[in-house]
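Entry 0007
Protein: SMI1 / KNR4 family (SUKH-1)
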Amino acid sequence: MDTEHADPAVIAELRDALCADDEGKSALGWPGVHAFEAEHGVTLPEPYRTFVAEVSDGSFAGPPDFGLVALAALPSDWGDGRPERVLAKPFPLTAAWLWEEDEEPDEELIDRVFNDGSIVLGTDGCGAYWHLVVTGPHRGQVWMITGEGAAPFGAEFGQGGGEAGFAGWVRHWSAGEPWFE
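Output (C-alpha cells):
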C-alpha cells in the first residue's frame, strides 16, 4: 500500500470500478484538493487523493452500499449534534475495538474514533460508516466504524480478504467479496 504516490494503473482501475466515466468533470481538481488539505491541516493519502482530484469527487456506484460521498460531505444518515470533526488530530486507534463489550466504554474516545483523523467515505446504512484514515499510524487504511465498535479493513488485520487501503477496499468491493469473513 503506497500512500504517497499514485500509480496511474491503480487510478485507471479505480475509475473503472467506480464507474467514474465523466472525464473528470466531477473531480475536485488539484486546487480543490489543496484547499481542502490546507483548511484541515492534512495531506490526503494516495491513491484517494489523486482519485478525487482527477477522476471523481464521490460515486453513486459504491462502495459502500450507498455510494462514495464527496470529500467534504458526510452521509445523509450521519445525524446532527455530533462533536466537531478534526481531521488533523491523529486517528486514535491502532487495533480493532468492540466497545459494546466494555462495561464502561470511554465515550470521549468513541467520539474521537468517529471524528478525529479520518474522512468518511460513505455508509452501508444503519450507522455503519467506512472511514479513510488521514492522520496517525493507520494513515491510508480504511476502517468500518459503527455504534458497536471499529475495525480496520484488510486481510493483514483479519478483517476481510482484501488488501488494506483505499484501492484494496475498492478492489474487494468490485469483486463482490464479503466485507468481513
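Curator remark: Residues 5 and 83 are 32 Å apart (CA to CA). Strands lie at 118-125, 128-133, 142-145, 150-152.
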